[in-house]
Specification:
The chain is of the alpha/beta class. 45% of the residues lie in helices and 16% in strands. The chain has 2 domains: 17-240 and 315-351, Luciferase-like domain (TIM Barrel); 245-311, no CATH class.
Amino acid sequence: MITSMKDAPHPQSVRFALYMQDKHPLAYELEMAEYAEAHGFSEIWQADTRLARDCIVMMSAFLTRTKRLRIGSGVLPIWTRNPAVIAATWSTMWELGKQVSGDPDAPSRVMLGLGAWWEPIASRVGVKRERPLQAMREYVEAIRQLFTMEEVTYQGEFVKLDRVRLDVVFGDTRPRDIPIYIGATGDKMLELSGEICDGVVLNYVVSVDYIKRAVDLVAKGAAKAGKTLDQVDRPELLVCALSDDDPKAAYFEAKKLVAYYLATEPHIMKASGVPDDLIAKVQRVMGWPATEADYIAAAKVIPDDVPRMLMAVGTTDECVAKVREYIAAGVTCPILYPLMDDIKPVVDAFADFS
């Protein structure tokens, strides 16, 4: 079991990753995973987004199409699966990654990112997100114990295991060195991530100032467990709307995504300093689920400086400069979400980053 990031690249050496959601066709994403691996990227984080694409299916596909890339969930909602089932699923992908790479002794190619889900989707499918901090702590603790391959009894408020173990009989029975991350946005969840996890997946569509504050909170949580900040990996989902041919189009696509967050997750926008009157203006236009017409209408009322504050947008030079700001704020691995149809320019822009 990993208790620090000793088996991963040192936090001081910046890694680059791609974030796959459901923007691009499946076959194209698999092709781009191979392209990213060939150009020095270290990992792919797959969203478990809305009710569109399941992260486990996509992670398994990425594992079979690449040899070296580490693959993570960004992030799996804890309310949707029992912790024992989650542990068994990641154990299976752990084995798959090793078999495809051909190196059974290599560190885990899979990472487990967990999240507390979000509204309005949770309540619409009958999930009550009660005491998410306690629930998250119990899930992480129980799954970590299951990864030891020992028998586990755990009696919590949300997690109850009675003499449960990963029942591997014919496969590899060694402990699973799978790092666990929390996708965190709020102050208390950021602290919890630093305290109990190998890393935190920092949210996207947030400002550099927000990231600086978030990193401080992660460090505070790490100190509770006797760890230093360097022992907690800090990848961040980071939107990259890049176009040298048509920067204005890149800005407009970025504004459409900002509109979505202003309407559905205004707490994130407020944390980054977006004015309340702009949030209210966009919410009057947007619904959920929103239509393309809603996105376009809302994007027209958002000024250029808002996406510029919250993401990497514009030309290659503009995007690279912005990503450097996030790295300087404490991000150890920018997880770049290519917002335009063509992913290759994003990979190319950061392939030779120094």
